[in-house]
Design a protein that fits this description.
The structure is a single chain. This protein has three helices and four strands, in the order H-E-H-H-E-E-E. By secondary structure, the chain is an alpha+beta fold. It has one domain. The protein has a four-stranded antiparallel beta sheet. A hairpin with a 4-residue loop joins strand 2 and strand 3. The chain is elongated and about 50 Å long.
């Protein structure tokens, strides 16, 4: 960040939670983008690790994952969770990778 955004004013503090959400979703998209570019569909995005690293509450994280999942599906990816909802698999094949123990998200 080269400079603070213009919205970062005291009079806008009621909107900070929305901006925080958008910021975290942006970080999540970037990490998932890098994961997909790695071209190994056996790998998965570690939802819980991401949440802990960024100090994101469970409810906030669930909302983010639902939005991200919808975006990825709209792009043609198949998406499912595994490992009790802590791993997000993104794959192009009809069936999830063998390393995925499918939960439904």
């Amino acid at each position: 960040m080269k400079e603070f955004p213009i919205f970062l004013k005291p009079e806008n503090k009621d909107d900070f939670l929305r901006h925080k959400y958008e910021s975290h979703v942006s970080y999540m998209r970037k990490e998932i983008f890098e994961l997909i570019l790695g071209c190994n569909e056996n790998n998965y995005f570690e939802i819980d690790t991401f949440g802990k690293r960024h100090g994101i509450s469970k409810s906030f994280l669930d909302k983010m994952c639902k939005n991200i999942t919808e975006e990825l599906r709209n792009l043609g990816w198949n998406v499912t969770t595994s490992f009790g909802g802590t791993g997000l698999f993104i794959y192009s094949t009809p069936e999830p990778p063998k390393s995925c123990y499918k939960d439904e998200f």
